[in-house]
Each structure stands twice: as structure tokens, then as C-alpha cells.
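Possible regression after last week's pipeline update?

I re-ran a chain I had predicted before the update to compare outputs. Posting the input and the new output here so someone can diff against the archived version. Not blocking, just want to make sure nothing changed silently.
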Amino acid sequence: MMLNVFKVFGLSAFAFFLAIILTPIFTHYFYKYKMWKGHSRSDEANPVSLDFRNIHQQRAAGELNTPRVGGIIIWFSTILTCLITWLAFKIFPDELTGKLNFLSKNQTWLPLFALIVSSLVGLADDLIQIFGKMGNKFFSDTDGFPSLPRRARIATVIIIGAIGAWWFFFPLEMTSILVPFVGEIALGWLFIPFFIITMLAVFSGGIIDGIDGLAGGVMASVFAAYTGIAFFQNQINIATFCAVITGSILAFLWFNIPPARFYMGETGMLGLTAALTVVAFLTKAVAVLPIIAFPLVVTSGSAIIQVIARKYFKKKVFRVAPIHHHFEAIGWPPYKVTMRFWVISIVFAIIGMVIALIG
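New output (post-update):
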């Protein structure tokens, strides 16, 4: 038991300090190669609301001078920690190094795969936004800003989700989900589309990365909750994987607290949301995911509600969507929005974890 505690929390601390040490190196190159957006939306005459323009005008200078690929620090530190413990076991095979090695086929291969592939796709999107040209025919969003087309990002998430669904359905023979206080609900082949839809839903919550420190604090709480769930389920390798990610996020957050040295970017959020989905299914705690990741649900839901309201009713429900920008629009300073989201995230993460463990 003590060795398990040391493995989970010790490697989390190791990842934190490793990321802290690596961050100045990454930051040097982020700024050297000017890895920030070449354009700010507040500079363009696009049809956005006055509230949206006012919020983003205040941050225009920051967007144009702050690197947006900070998520590299999170997934690189996580992968490097995994690699170090695996090499330590291979070079010095004994009971201790064998225990610390958390790379395992049945627990961490799939979430690690999802993290790496999704992070690289997100990195490609970030690089297009940084170095791409306005109005590029193939790499621009609907407003002409450099970006990987949203359809391409969604297609990538679907492909990754399909691979994960296949792995769960066939090699792992998982065809049901566990609902607390209800029990197992058999889905049969419907498990496959359910998995893909869940990954898309979690991915949609990635739009929470809009204020300094917001996404980092929320995602740290979410992965900490799944660390606890996996630990009490005796899935120690998954617990360690989540704990290592949590430690890496906290190191990122150290430098992302206002004024941010860099933003998480797509390379951070896309990788984290994909890995989170896989972890939720591996721990059979996907039913409580909407509770644990409540801020992601609210953020994504507010954007959907706003789109529906404007398209079909020609009205706005929120001054600005997603909802964290709504609070800015009504006068909350960014730091107040961030810290209150942190509080809400911690509370719901604890509630979700408790429900998953006692249900």
C-alpha cells in the first residue's frame, strides 16, 4: 500500500518538478520563434458582438505576444516521466523500478496513445494558427483566420475515438457502462458510437481555454479526481498516469497564472480531453464524467445554447459565449472568473469522485 502511495504521489511530484525545470527551456524557444498568433480577432472587421470585441480587445496585445503552445509542457513532461520509469526498469530491473514503471498494456497504453496522437494534431493546428496566412484556402476557419478546419479536427477526434472504441469493444470486451446506484447497463454494439460521441462531447469542452489559468486549474481538478477513483479501484497504473498529468498541469499552471507566460493551446486541450475520455471508460466512471468535468459541460453547453438561440430565435441567452466570457462581459475581472471556476471545479470533482466510489 505504501509503495502504491509513493508511486502515485511521488511520480506526480516528479513530473511537476521535471516540468518546472523544462519550462524555461521551452519558453526560450517559444519566444525565440515567436510562437503566438499572427492576428487577433479584435483587429478584424468581422461580425462579432460589441461585448466580444471589448473583451478580446483588452487581451489583443497579449494574444499577439504570448506563445500559444504551452500544452507541450504538459504532455512532454508526462511522456518523459513515463519513459524515464520504463527505462529505469529495463536498465535496472528490480522490485522497486518494476513497481514505479506505470506503462502497461491493459491500463496505460490506450490513454497514452490518445494523449500523444491528439496532442500532435493539436500542435499542428496551433502551428497553422501561428505561421499560417489569413484567408488560406485550405487552412482557415469560417472567418478566414489561419486554423486547421474544424471539420478536420472533428474528423480526427472521431478517428481516435473509433480506435479507442474498437480497443474497448474487441480486445477488452467492454460492452456496458456502470451507472452509480443503478449498475451495469448493457449497450452491445452501441458502445462504439457511445464512446465516440463521449470523446466528441469532452473535446467540445476544450473551448474553456479562454482566460489565463482557467483551463489548467479545471483540468488539474478533473485528473486529480480520476487519480483518486483509479487508486481506490486498485488500478494503480491509471492512477499514476492521471497523477503524473496532474503534476504536469500544475507546473504549467505555475507559469500560466496571470500574466500568462504562454497559453495551453490546442496541443494541450485536445490531448487532455482525449486522454480524459479513455481514462473515464477504463475506470468505468464515465457516468460521473459530466459531474467531475462540470465546468467543461457548462462551457460547451453555453456555446451550444447560444448558437441555437441566435439561429432559431434571433436572440442571445448570454452576453458572450462561452459562459466564462459572459461573466467578463457583465463586469467580472478575469481573475475572479478563473478562481470561481477553480472552486466549482474542485467541488464537483470531489462530488463526482465520491459518487463513483460509493455508487
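Follow-up from reviewer: compared with the archived run. Residues 2-32 form the longest helix (31 residues). Marking as no regression found.
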